[in-house]
Amino acid sequence: MHGEATPAWWQRGAIYQIYPRSFADSDGDGVGDLRGIIAHLDHLNDGTPGSLGVEAIWLSPFYRSPMADYGYDVSDYTDVDPLFGTLADFDDLLGEAHARGVKVIVDFVPNHTSDRHPWFVESRSSREDPKRDWYVWRDGGGPDRRPNDWVSNFPAVGPAWTWDERTAQWYLHSFLPQQPDLNWDNPEVEAALYDAMRFWLDRGVDGFRLDVIHAIAKDPELRSNRGSDRVHHEDWQPTIHEPLQRMSAMIDGYDDRMLVGEVYLLDLHRLVAYVNSGRELHLAHNFTFARLPWEVAAFRENIDGWEAAASDVAWPAWFLANHDHPRTASRFDHPRGTGQARARAVLLLLYAMRGTPFVYQGEELGLPDAQIPRERVVDVDGRDPERAPIPWAPPSRAGAGAGFSPGDPWLPLIADAERLNVASQREDPASTFALARRLAWLRRREPVLQVGGQRSLALGEDLLAWLRAFGGGDHAWVAVANFALQERRIGASPDLPERGVLEVSTVHGRPDEGCEVPLDGLALDGGEAVLLRLSV
Ligand code: NOJ
Fold first, then answer.
1. Alpha carbon of 33 to those of 2, 7, 105: distances in Å?
2. Distance from Cα 531 to the centre of ligand 1, integer Å
3. Of the candidates 441, 470, 503, which is a domain's last residue?
4. Which of 88, 356, 360, 361 could serve as 321's disulfide partner, Cβ 3.0–4.6 Å?
């Protein structure tokens, strides 16, 4: 167990993911926009414990895009789509966030562009075009035989190759046919993308979330997946590290910027390879963790597994929800009828673990996924439910748009917006929002919760428990989450003192909260998580 004294900004507190389409709509077209975000920055951090106290925001794409994949199909990396606003709006947003001490990271999509991006329009114009090689073109066996058996990450799409009539070749797309993959083996591509990154760095952004970054390195022979369990383009890692080192060096030319990668590899050892050298990514999203079932052994094994595989310079990034995955309340609570208990325990986990918590918009409210009627489905990959707009106010007061939009929201809102909206939760000390902001500000106040070392503890059946402390053992904290449906008691442990102060429980109104309590035998409700200060 080791701890460090001075955290970087991206280690201190939560990075809050904003999906701009669904955050707040300022102009009434039913789609969220940049001015909507500006209007709600105080909710995220106004410098007081009444707000969520976020350290940084990550903005999902707002660039010019035909929106085939809702912005992950970029047609101009250096402009704002009119749907979301203008570059001037972006500059205002950046300035307003910085004025509140909130860093801003933007999503960057280096693996593919839109098929309407001028680069691809040129590339597909002829086999002789200078940009032909900027994408992955192959002959295959003519129009009836694809170059290999790779499939799109969206199962509904099927094969990852589309035949281009005019130039009689196939092009590769790891996602939609409207998202052709760039060819990172061509140095001009890498240089052009770094130019685009510099555009935003020069404007003052604090870092990037790198979309499917593991996928930029392709197997040079484009070998078939059939008959091999290891070799396919997403697993082709031998050639990824050099471009990432160059990208990292480019970022280092600026002051205090950060790279977090969407490294969608379901193997902890491969994941940590992106952060272990300290010369590539600062953070890598851990999808092995995000996809865990609600089982104590699985969580323990994953957390310990990460620590065991990580080097001394590696720093974890924890998350359990984003715009591509069902929300925690729907995954963990609803099937068991536990209300928001587990969604609340997840928040305590995220804020109390060693590592950077990533909180997806609405998680601070314990929102469930929305029910999307068949005729309102818009996403090719079933991700509409977790992308439902944020309810800012009760519909009875604010109308059907629940303060998200004065117009018709692009997706239906959750059914329970009347109860779960932001305004109501801000007023209610029992709400999940009230819990989230307490956890956030507690972490902001307590360096040991930011950069203290971490060690797992065995405190009893169904209990996930860990100690946070600096080397000398001063300022130690312990967190415990009960994964069972029934009450569980903390057992005697040589690792714990006799007593501690129960600073936070996820169960509102617990009578001994704030009190010094004996640890041996302390009872936790089903789904409850607690945070205890050991040194009084
Ligand atoms: C990952 C993004 O999070 C997802 O929303 C998108 O569809 C794919 N990458 C393709 O860019």
1. 42, 32, 16
2. 35
3. 441
4. 360
